Amino acid sequence: MRSRRFALMMMAAVLAMGVLAGARDRFDDWVQATALPRLDIPVGVEVMARDGSLLRAFQVSDGRWRLEPGAVDPLFLDMLVMWEDRRFADHSGIDPVAVLRAGWQALRHGRVVSGGSTLTMQVARLIEEGPTGEWAGKLRQVRLALALERRLTKPVIMDLYLRLAPYGANVEGLRAASLQWFGKEPRRLTPAEAALLVALPQSPERRRPDRFPAAAKSARDRVLARAAQAGLLSEADAQAAMAEPVPRQRRAFPALAPLLAERLRREHPGAGRIETTIDPRLQRRAEELASRAVRGVGRRLSAAMVLADHRNGEILASVGAADWTDGGSAGFVDMTRALRSPGSTLKPFVYGLAFDAGLAHPETLIEDRPTAFGPWQPQNFDRQFRGTVSLRQALVQSLNIPVVKLAEAIGPNRVVQGLERGGIDLRLPGGTPGLALVLGGAGVTLEDLTTGYGALAQGGRGMRLSALPGGAQALPVAMFGPVAAWQVGNVLAGNPAPQGARARPMAYKTGTSYGHRDALAVGFDGAHVGAVWLGRPDGTAVPGAFGGDLSAPVLFDLFDALPPAALPPPPSQTLTLPNSALPLALRRFAPAGEVSRMAARPLAPDRLALTFPPDGAVIETSGPLLARARGGKGPWTFLLNGLPSSVASDRPESLLPDPGPGFAHLTVIDAAGASASATIRLQLPDFTPR
Known about the structure:
Elements: H1 2-19, H2 24-32, E1 46-48, E2 54-57, H3 74-84, H4 96-109, H5 119-128, H6 135-151, H7 154-164, H8 174-182, H9 191-199, H10 213-229, H11 235-242, H12 258-267, E3 273-275, H13 280-294, E4 302-309, E5 314-319, H14 347-356, E6 365-368, E7 387-390, H15 391-396, H16 400-410, H17 412-421, H18 446-457, E8 463-464, E9 473-474, H19 482-492, E10 507-512, E11 518-524, E12 528-535, H20 547-559, H21 584-587, H22 592-600, E13 609-612, E14 618-620, E15 625-630, E16 636-640, E17 643-649, E18 653-656, E19 662-669, E20 675-683
Helix pairs in contact: 1-4, 1-6, 3-9, 5-6, 5-7, 9-10, 10-11, 13-20, 14-16, 14-19
């Protein structure tokens, strides 16, 4: 007690010395020579949602919760100044009136009756973490406070206080305290909340509401009473605020999209604030669904989800684990970025490539029968075969033999290239693509799979997804054309909704990896694309887990949080015909070997042939392309890159629209279903002066 009184007297003496005219110059030099500590107070990294709300905050390196103050309720600031430093706006670091009053009261009563520290002096103590009771410490605080006032503005000093004020345990600063005790930002505080946050820093441990609620309430009510006396509150408002209980437990700091936030922090070292495109409402819904999906299903089960706007590539929700704090289910692993087997979810892209190449149509018939592909004899999931089916049926029923036949005709390398054009980067066993990749024999991330389905929704060319504003990038090359993309989407839209789910306009596909290790569902509507994964991060089996049973209902629940968005109409060039009305070559899929044997036969005089342009020709053109056939039975239909360009022409020649520079594939089909093709290269005329 004696040291406190002596310190107050010393402060008064310093003030008196400062105002003596003969010593003013030396006093100014003494203040000016003060060495300031570092004022760039570190704060935790903040990851923000698209609406500006906090997704997740991180502690500073020493483990303290300290955040940028942000917007502060004016009532709090008024109460703070009223309670701590009424002349804060006018003094130069110390308040002579308060110091003299405090010193006189201490000498008169033998104890401290009122404090003399200004907010600036408190900032001086906090930035140095210096002692509060020793006279030497008080003198240092006085000197530093005077120096701070000369070199900083009042708003900067207030900002330092709002960052550093102690609120107990490892929490510092108003914003961290407001989030901890009230779960809200400090820009809108009730009178009771503001008063408690004013009172706590004076004795942060002995007034902690969770431990000493009576002491916390008493201190808060004293602030409210004085606020009413000062005219900051009406008496009625102060009494109503005093009737409110104080919070009895600390709240957890926000942790929405925790694994995504952690990844973004690692990827942007040094960033204090990271903006994202995450929609907090959709993120909460996705996390609730992930938690619900694994509840009671099995030990160590986890879930992951990605939801994006495929029109601009913005990720709206990202769930990396069902419970990111659960070590038993490897909740620390972000399963949106983990390589997993995609099961049957790659099949739609194989169909799209086949449609785009003119090899098939959704109504083309194909045989689902036991077939050997070299030494490999794949089977359907249920080990049953359906015989003759349309490709539409084969895709909806996720049959294996038909898709492998298509992949063989296209070629595994071209399948991989098509997937990569859609943003799907595969991890191939041994590095060499084989036919098994179309049944899930490759590693894919959930985020890449979502990207690929987003490209499917966008007519074959989509966006590389991103959770950063402006971070999405358009994929440079389409995986296939808009007609093929629409045809695949139209088939997938025919999948029935899971049992109990509300039907909605959505194209989706499920997948189950070998051994029931991964259960997936991926889908899109006219605006959004989403993917759901359930499984065990360690790769062990989940007996009985199927994508259609586990993941598809979750996907539909996720889309129920979105407004319905209709799927697009077919492009104008689309052939929406039954099998019987298709050109003969598209009515039944012919395996590649059969096609090559037919091509090896000598041409009969009246056999259909494409005479111009010849196969392999390089043609300079900047306008319509002339195609001419010979033989066959009219009328003739010409396809350019798999799309009808001239239908039922009465002459075996036609002017086709210029497809632009690059390779082009031409096909002519006659009334009997015979066809002939050529692949050519088009280039612009060379106008270089010679």
